[in-house]
Structure formats: C-alpha cells, structure tokens
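__Protein archive entry__

___
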Amino acid sequence: MPWQPKGILGCIKHSITSQLREVTVPLYSALAQPHLEYCVWFWAPQFQKYAEVLESIQRRATKLVKWLEGRSYEEQLRTSGLSSLEKSRLRGDLTAFCSFLRRGRGEGGTDLFSLRSSDRTCGNGSNLHQGRFSLNIRKRFFTERVVKHWNRLPREVFDAPSLTVFKKHLDHALNNML
C-alpha cells in the first residue's frame, strides 16, 4: 500500500508547475491521502515503524509546497490545513465509538465495552474500563485503543447533542491533547 501514495506524489510533483498550497494540498488530499487513511481505523498500524512509514509520505507531500520549507512538520501541517495521520486515526476511532454509543450499542456490541458512569467533576462522566490481556497484540484492537483517549475527553465533547457537534468539539479537544 505505501508505494501507491508515493507514486501519486511523484506524479503530482512532476505534473504541476505551481508549487502553491492552493494547488498542491487539494491534489494531495484528493489523490494520495485517501490511500493512507483507507480503513485505518480498523487495521491501525501494529508497529510504530509502520505508522512512521505512512507519516513519512505525508511529510513528503508537505515538502512539495515550496514556501513551507524550513518550518517544522507540525507547522507545515497547521499552515496547509492538514492533520497528522495519527490524529486522524484517533479522531476516527473516537467518532466511531461515539456513533456506536449513540446507536445504543446494538445486540452484538454489549460485550465489547464495559462502561462505568460516574458523577465526578473531572472527566466526561462515562468512563470505559480497560481490560487486561496477556498478549500485547490485543492492545492495538479498536476496543482497547479507544479506552484511554475516550476517558480523557472533556465533558462538553462527550455531552454533544449530535455527532456533528461532537466532531467539532472533538477537533478542539484533540488540538489540546496532542
């Protein structure tokens, strides 16, 4: 999979003469980024080195914009209106989980999460229980990787009246968390 976005970036680089953000970023967002984010919430890179390979492709895309040279990667992302793939994965995980909770967890999903309600003043009032497993591979499963981040969300994100409002509050909270 990682070679497809690299090839697409090469085509963008050699096909366009303009190195303006208004040209390069939309092309990257439309042509290469979907390959990097395809089903990423389900398969989430198992090892850090795989996540770094995917992120390096996005780093390469930000370097295509000439006037962003010399800035840090985070500043390049912020200026071009992109977010890191890690943040995108986390946003997708939390959005999927919120959608899961709002649907009432269905018949088959009641065993996936153990939800504890609390009336504490800090936190979101609805904490998930983190399971213990002897195998490290289980830590990367969706049902486990969402727990830590969900419990850290502020109450205003958790109490959003709709999924759209939840996403807006989540974006603001993620800027402060990561």
Remarks:
- The longest strand covers residues 115-117.
- The chain has two domains: 3-82, 89-177.
- The longest helix spans residues 85-102.
